[in-house]
Amino acid sequence: ILAKGRIPTTSGSGTGHAAPLEKLIQLSELPRLALASGLTPENIYMFKPYITHALVATGISDSFYTFDPVKVKDFVQAARG
Q1: Interval 67-81: pLDDT, tens
Q2: Closest by alpha carbon to 40, among 10, 62, 13?
Q3: Which of 9, 48, 60, 65 has the CB geometry, 3.0–4.6 Å to 34, for a possible disulfide?
Q4: pTM for this model (two decimals)
């Protein structure tokens, strides 16, 4: 049973590397699941069926310190679509 306000989170092998899809399929029985690595506007569609939350930074950034507004918009649209 998940504690209130807690969301299990998984990631890939490192920054910018998405988790293997097989791993997310295995965890999809959880009522909530966050993915915190490797998400981009181009690949979010693959992961959406298996996660309820996305933590994203490098996949929508144009540098280490700034987000790319176009990538942010594209990501949000793809995640909602």
Answers
A1: 999 999 999 999 998
A2: 62
A3: 9
A4: 0.86
